[in-house]
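### Sample
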Amino acid sequence: MAQAMRSPQISLLSTDGKPHPLQDTLMAVTLTLGVVAFVTAFFHNLHLISSWAGLIGILTGAYGQFVSVTTRERFALIIGLGASAIGFYLGMFHGGLFGG
């Protein structure tokens, strides 16, 4: 019954109670790049930013999915990956990675 007396640890980033600094960093980078790519994708002049941020966000999100441990990390990575992919595809439609 000793385990019943423990106070529950509530964490937004890990559900197993252990720290995951690499996974948390990849999650934050992917979400940030996803937001940047998604927002700048709606402006035709910013296609370089949206396409590069989207591409890097897709790569970091894919690696983050590969090394993720908890469901919360995977959930946030999928949100960031989706936003990065939309930003990347719209940036490619508007002019691509090299300004074509």
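The mean pLDDT is 88. This sample (Integral membrane protein) is used throughout the tutorial notebook.
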